[in-house]
């Protein structure tokens, strides 16, 4: 089983996270950012990663620090759980329709951190969550996991639907990228390393 856990304590946030890449999509997400909890629960369900997160932080300021730091810790723990990356599919991509919204995600577990993010939101907030933090979360994840991540909100009008489609596509694409193929010998790269 590819399981890892991490703890990150700073003056701004305290985060404890555990991930199982070979799980069933079960999650326990406990943060004060309720919209983010919803998105991470969706991510867990669609990736089939078991995910436990306990996070606290200076949310009286806003949700920026806790959102970014969860992205950092989730990325680091994901990379730790992958281990040597032997036998994985490496690439994954997925389209997700969510009513009028359509999102696409492509991922390469490349060892090279990069984020392409394209989304236009008609609102600045969903509930009390600043939607600009969606990009910050994905940037933090891509950087700390050392993956190439492309997220594209192709269309949509309802901000909640657009963000939900992005998180679901992200989960589905990662599920494919980490899938182990018994025919794959070593890491899936002609360089011999990822």
UniProtKB/TrEMBL annotation:
EC id: 4.2.1.19
Q: Which domain of life is it from?
A: Bacteria
The scientific name of the source species is Tepidanaerobacter syntrophicus
Q: What is a biological process (GO) this protein takes part in?
A: L-histidine biosynthetic process
Catalyzed reactions: D-erythro-1-(imidazol-4-yl)glycerol 3-phosphate = 3-(imidazol-4-yl)-2-oxopropyl phosphate + H2O
Q: Where in the cell is it found?
A: Cytoplasm
- Biological pathway: Amino-acid biosynthesis; L-histidine biosynthesis; L-histidine from 5-phospho-alpha-D-ribose 1-diphosphate: step 6/9
In the UniProt record, does the keyword Nucleus occur?
no
**One Pfam family this chain carries?**
IGPD
> Key word Amino-acid biosynthesis present in the record?
yes
Protein's name according to its UniProt entry: Imidazoleglycerol-phosphate dehydratase
Would you tell me the Gene Ontology cellular component terms?
cytoplasm
* Record's keyword terms, sorted: Amino-acid biosynthesis, Cytoplasm, Histidine biosynthesis, Lyase
The enzyme class is lyase
Protein encoded by which gene? hisB
Q: Which PANTHER family match?
A: IMIDAZOLEGLYCEROL-PHOSPHATE DEHYDRATASE (PTHR23133:SF2), IMIDAZOLEGLYCEROL-PHOSPHATE DEHYDRATASE HIS7 (PTHR23133)
Q: What GO molecular function terms would the record report?
A: imidazoleglycerol-phosphate dehydratase activity
The text of the family note is: Belongs to the imidazoleglycerol-phosphate dehydratase family.
